[in-house]
């Protein structure tokens, strides 16, 4: 199984959609956004939330590609924004500095 950040890096979406999501990601607030997208209750950790968001986004992108009448651009952007925000949290957690030995 790929890690969530590799899965995210492999996604190919329209440039305008990604640019809009990047701008929205600047205002991402985990407590508000995840609750709206994943439902109420205990919030999963960043990696688990990112995996769930990737699944949701994949289904939404299929709708977009098929010109489905139920497709919502606004919701798709919300999911992409949350994915980018969670990816930042996952990468920050994995990039903790290693403590150097005191000599």
What does this molecule look like?
There is one protein chain. The chain is 67% helix and 0% strand. It is globular and about 35 Å long. It has helices at residues 4-10, 15-25, 30-38, 46-65, 73-94. With 103 residues, it is mainly α. The chain has one domain. α2 crosses α5, α3 (30-38) crosses α5 (73-94) and α4 runs antiparallel to α5 (73-94). Mean pLDDT is 83; it is low at 96-103. The chain contains 5 helices and no strands. The longest helix has 22 residues, at 73-94.
At a glance:
This protein has 103 residues and is an all-alpha fold. It has one domain. 67% of the residues lie in helices and 0% in strands.
Strand proportion, as a percent range, falls in under 5%
- Describe the global form: globular
Oligomer: single chain
Main β-sheet description: none
| Count of distinct structural domains | 1
How would you spell out the order of helices and strands?
Answer: HHHHH
Overall structural class, as computed from helix and strand content, comes to: mainly alpha
Question: Can you tag this structure with a few keywords?
Answer:
single chain; 103 residues; mainly alpha
Topology:
Elements: H1 4-10, H2 15-25, H3 30-38, H4 46-65, H5 73-94
